[in-house]
């Protein structure tokens, strides 16, 4: 055979030259490098995830311990009794506020009625003094009774016979105010001062 007459080294060299394996070797080198880089990246990411998992596990254990501590420390019966006591206190305060509001409205109505009565008496007193029919003593006594019922005691000057001083008592506040009525100011000023002190 003609082929075997040639030198085998030459035949093998010629045969290998026909295969062109250099590009394949370069591809294999690139693939190997890519695989190494991918393995390193995967290992680093896996290590980071493992560290994160350990951190979360520690945090979960801490939270679990705190939860167990709070559960052991929590007294459900005491908590329920405190809630009931606070509810009772809330309703008691609400009832007291309602009672105070009702009492305030009642006192406002009573005060308005007394003011109207006093205005009526003052108007009748002025008309009676104009008529001069001898009822001035009764008028003064009636006014004094109304003032005393409101907590106002009026003092009369011994020399002139005029009422020049008023002692205003407010039992609700525990106050006592003394007002000198010298007639220099308007009657409405004294009236407002009396009502403010009551």
Automatic annotation (TrEMBL):
Which species is listed as the source?
Cladosporium halotolerans
Pfam families linked: Spc24
- What is this protein's name? Kinetochore protein Spc24
UniProt record, GO biological process: cell division; chromosome segregation
The residue stretches assigned to a coiled coil in this entry are 46-73
Q: Which GO terms describe its molecular function?
A: microtubule binding
Localization recorded for this chain is: Cytoplasm, Cytoskeleton, Microtubule organizing center; Nucleus; Chromosome, Centromere, Kinetochore
Q: What's this protein's family per the entry?
A: Belongs to the SPC24 family.
Q: What is its main location?
A: cytoplasm
């Amino acid at each position: 055979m003609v082929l075997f007459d040639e030198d085998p080294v030459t035949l093998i060299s010629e045969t290998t030259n026909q295969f062109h394996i250099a590009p394949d070797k370069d591809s294999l080198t690139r693939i190997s490098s890519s695989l190494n880089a991918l393995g390193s990246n995967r290992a680093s990411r896996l290590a980071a995830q493992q560290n994160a998992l350990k951190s979360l596990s520690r945090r979960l254990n801490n939270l679990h311990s705190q939860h167990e501590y709070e559960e052991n420390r929590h007294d459900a019966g005491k908590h329920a009794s405190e809630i009931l006591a606070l509810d009772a206190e809330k309703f008691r305060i609400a009832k007291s506020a309602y009672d105070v509001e009702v009492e305030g409205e009642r006192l406002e109505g009573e005060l308005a009625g007394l003011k109207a009565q006093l205005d009526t008496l003052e108007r009748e007193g002025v008309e009676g003094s104009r008529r001069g029919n001898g009822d001035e003593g009764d008028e003064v006594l009636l006014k004094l009774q109304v003032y005393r019922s409101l907590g106002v005691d009026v003092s009369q000057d011994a020399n002139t016979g005029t009422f020049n001083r008023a002692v205003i008592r407010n039992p609700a506040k525990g106050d006592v105010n003394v007002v000198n009525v010298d007639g220099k100011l308007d009657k409405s000023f004294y009236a407002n001062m009396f009502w403010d002190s009551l």
